[in-house]
Design a protein that fits this description.
Helices cover 64% and strands 10% of the residues. It is α+β, with helices and mostly antiparallel strands. The protein has 3 domains: 68 residues, no CATH class; 96 residues; 150 residues, Alpha-Beta Plaits (2-Layer Sandwich). It has a 5-stranded mixed beta sheet, with helices on both faces. The longest helix is centred in the middle third of the chain and has 51 residues. It is elongated.
Length: 337
């Protein structure tokens, strides 16, 4: 609600946002409501563009998609990031000032030594005594200044360590799916750009993993149990990804694995191992001991040049599953070309 809205205007917008969610067939959770409200009031061109693009492609709007929209376009992180940048700037200014002061202290010491070393060669004992006295005084001042700078540097290091922890938290919020801990689409795009800069000819194998009958299971068991099952499957999927690979959650019931410099057939073998491992999983509720339905996966495998857009990689590999969705589940389909 904008602060200049009247009570009547605010109430009208609230009802409109709820009605929009009903048209989308999505529950009126706080996050979904915030996205619907922002969409109707056109608070973000990027938000509206992303939603309209999703609708134009005939793809379903679900909780996962709206949560992505919320994190990307609505979640108010600007103030926090502004404070973080200010803190980083302050630390950098302190480090620069300390460095400059250390340089000045060193230059002063060198100058004093140069000037007084000449006097040490004098035959006049008083000049030699004064030179030694001056060198000792300069050395003491230098030591004092360096000790003070060392304390300031130690404080800056502590501040930097604290900021690094905060930055790590921000990175997790920006690049990781909060439910599964897998990477999100933003992280996927960033990795593709890095791989492209590293080697424009680099090939990447793509494995799209879809959980069979997940929508029906979600409706029958409820979102809480579904989220637990989803997380366990995500953990199993990520366990087959090496350090160079990238496991991504691309939709509510879909994962993507990117494997750079891996042949398509090798990726197919990885996909088959994932399919078999999930098929063997058995889920039992902790409270009642009820055995839950067996979970299976339908998987598509293809390969691409890293210059290919993230959407094309997902859509083209996803098509390998969709071509057989009505005929087969619990299978791996590897692209022929």
């Amino acid at each position: 609600m904008q602060y200049h809205d009247s009570i009547a205007q605010a109430e009208q917008k609230m009802h409109a946002a709820i009605k929009q969610l009903q048209l989308w067939h999505i529950a009126a959770t706080p996050i979904n409501y915030a996205v619907s409200y922002g969409y109707l009031n056109k608070h973000s061109k990027s938000l509206n563009s992303a939603i309209e693009k999703q609708l134009a492609s005939k793809k379903k709007l679900d909780n996962f998609f709206l949560e992505e929209m919320y994190r990307q376009f609505i979640l108010g992180q600007s103030a926090f990031r502004g404070e973080l940048i200010d803190d980083l700037d302050e630390v950098l200014v302190d480090l620069q000032a300390n460095s400059q002061q250390s340089t000045l202290n060193t230059q002063r010491l060198v100058t004093e030594l140069d000037e007084n070393i000449v006097n040490l060669k004098s035959k006049d004992r008083s000049e030699i005594f004064n030179a030694i006295k001056q060198i000792r005084l300069t050395a003491q001042q230098f030591k004092h200044e360096q000790e003070k700078l060392a304390k300031q540097l130690k404080f800056s290091q502590k501040s930097t360590a604290a900021l690094r922890v905060e930055l790590d938290d921000v990175k997790k919020e920006i690049y990781l799916d909060p439910l599964t801990g897998l990477y999100n689409l933003k992280a996927m795009n960033q990795h593709l750009e890095l791989w492209l800069c590293d080697d424009p000819k680099k090939q990447v194998a793509a494995i799209v993993i879809n959980i069979d009958q997940f929508t029906q299971m979600n409706e029958s068991l409820g979102p809480l149990i579904s989220d637990v099952l989803l997380t366990k499957i995500a953990n199993k999927v990520s366990s087959y990804v090496g350090q160079s690979g990238l496991p991504v959650r691309t939709a509510g019931d879909e994962f993507l694995i990117l494997l750079p410099n891996i042949k398509r057939m090798v990726a197919g073998e990885v996909a088959e191992k994932i399919r078999q491992s999930v098929e063997k999983l058995r889920f039992i509720t902790s409270k009642s001991g009820t055995r839950l339905p067996q979970m299976t996966l339908s998987i598509g495998v293809s390969d691409f040049n890293v210059a290919t857009s993230a959407n094309n990689i997902i859509n083209q590999t996803r098509a390998l599953i969709n071509d057989n969705t009505n005929k087969r589940t619990n299978h791996v389909n590897i692209a022929n070309t």
